[in-house]
Amino acid sequence: MDNSQEIAKDYSQPVSIADDDSRETVIRKESLQEKLRSAGSFVLFLASRLVQALFVVWSAVTLAFIAVHCAPGDIVDSLLTDTEKSNEQMRLRVIEEWGLDKPVIVQYVGYIGKLLHGDFGTSYAQKKSVNAIFAEQFPATIQLTVVALIISVVVAIIGALFISRRTNVVVGSLYKGIELTLLSTPPFWFGILLLFVFSFTLGWFPVAGSSGIKSLVLPALAIGIPMGANLSQILRQGIEKSEEQPYTLTSLSRGLSPRAIRWHHSLRHASIPALTVGGMMVGGLLGGAVITEQVFGRPGLGQIALNAINSKDLPVILAVVFVSSLVFVLASTLVDVLYFVVDPRLKVARSEE
């Protein structure tokens, strides 16, 4: 009996190891399947968002095309300046370029085809292609928008992380008052104040123009600080709600400091609503750049749009509509993708659907 028990003990260990190996294999397979499901759900989600983005841009372009054809008067007269309306050769050129002698559906297909090839047509008011106009001035708007966005993110994170319920009451109240004032201030008006103080009074920065980094500082601050104040308020409220959740108490019990919890846990959970509002504010950021460019005398989309409206330059106006809708769509799609990066629970929810 003792010998049989010893033999059983000798054989029990290999059987246990085999069972453990089989369990590890099953776990690996399940983990791989979970990763594949998560990746597949993300690809499907991204594909659906891209389809929606294409539909939005197509709708904007189509509505612009319909508006041109439904506007009162002759389309050729709308495309040409007042001095060129009586020029017969110019009228024939416009008719040929826009296909106005063909059925409307053919004109529409031709117009979409040109946009797909990146051809925005010709500005008859400025005597150059619309592509050349955007190539000269639009990079300045992108530069201003990107720098302003970076400033807004820095302001939002600093305000959200370093001002909390534990902050001194006087300091916290003072910051929140300044924050409320800034987020209620229009960027162009804030830009005028910055010009008065730092350009007219102190002479630290140029009044107008786009030459050098110094000419970019004040316009970027005029747009980025009010936007950052808005995001800071949303982030701070999200962090305060996050600190009331059970996982915060669990993290504290494991020895994490309140600052580490705010940096590594609360900020991530609070960034979801901030991303949503930030994506919605991109359009306002672009619009704020348009007005701010006029205040600071900078080239860019604002100058393009203003000149086109004043001279009734329809091809440029149509290009501005297309570019603006494209920026909105790209920002919205990017925010949707960042949701998956910031909050892994969305991957699980999508894979389970």
TrEMBL record:
- UniProt superkingdom: Bacteria
The record's annotation in Gene3D superfamilies points to: MetI-like
**Is the Membrane keyword given for this protein?**
yes
Which InterPro entries does UniProt cross-reference here?
Answer: BPD_transp_1_N, MetI-like, MetI-like_sf
Question: Any idea where this protein resides?
Answer: Cell membrane
Q: What is its main location?
A: membrane
Per its UniProt record, what SUPFAM superfamilies does this chain match? Answer: MetI-like
TM segment ranges: 42-68, 142-163, 188-207, 213-231, 272-296, 316-342
ABC transmembrane type-1 domain span:
138-339
> Which keywords are on file for this protein?
Cell membrane, Membrane, Transmembrane, Transmembrane helix, Transport
Question: What PROSITE patterns does the record point to?
Answer: ABC_TM1
Key word Amino-acid biosynthesis present: no
Q: How does it sit in the membrane?
A: Multi-pass membrane protein
What family is reported? Belongs to the binding-protein-dependent transport system permease family.
- Could you tell me what this protein is called? ABC transporter permease
